[in-house]
Specification:
Layout: E1 11-15, H1 19-32, E2 51-52, H2 64-67, H3 69-80, H4 82-89, H5 95-102, H6 112-124, H7 137-151, H8 155-159, H9 162-175, E3 182-186, H10 189-198, E4 212-220, E5 223-231, E6 239-241, E7 250-251, H11 252-259
Parallel strand pairs: 1-2, 1-3
Antiparallel strand pairs: 4-5, 5-6, 5-7
Helix pairs in contact: 6-7, 9-10
Length: 270
Amino acid sequence: MYSKYLDGVEVKAVSTDFNRTKDSLYLVLNRLFDDKDNFDLSHPLKQFHFEVAPVQNSRLLSFPIIFCPRYQEIYKQYKASEEGRRLFKKYAEHFPYIYEHTGVNITNIVQLVPIFETIKSNKEWGIKTPTWAKPVYQYLMSAVEDFYMSMVAWPGLNKLFGGVLLNEILRNIDTNMETKRLFLYSAHDLNVVGLLGAMELHWAHIPYYTACIIIELYQIGHDPYVKVLYQEDYSKGFKEMRLPECDVLCPLEKFKKTVDRSIPGDNDYC
């Protein structure tokens, strides 16, 4: 698809240190540089070099709610705020029911995430939803959606989360576009949430396995513009996103100004 536009030297690719994200990146790179109209998965994949960013010690594609003490402290402040207390309280009534059927002593909605993800994944593999879970399936999904929203609720959280990746993207636009045409990052649903949150584009939803954000750079006349596209699920395709106070095609400097409060500074350390 891009084989005539790109060569391997013009692409920088980064993955987290999980087999599933590395394999996804291999597939994307193979498809990008395959000349055939019909990509054949039965053929051996070509090997491409890409960087690996471990989530434990690289902030670029990390999970700060697990690995960043400063983020954890700000998130604790959010949970203690009126907005946070209201959010977490609304799900408490079903905690005893979940405990009764799972044996997990639920004290906050974070603990509902692996329960919902397990049920959801099993369902996708054709395993029936347990009888006990059917009455609370929508409740669990709503709790996970709100938990994701809470992770990007404050600018201080975004600076330590998706703002790190967004800062890298903006730096690439400013300094690397002469030598690179494409930057690929293969990561997780939480990273999608973080990047959307840093651009103030996230809403209450759970990104699907094929969720993807594309940030395109355009040159119109003498002026650079940015367009953001988001695919929530491959079946829905990409849709153009509109940042606050921006058109779909947003002047680069206005884009930077819009997201500035999510960009980490020198003192925004973990």
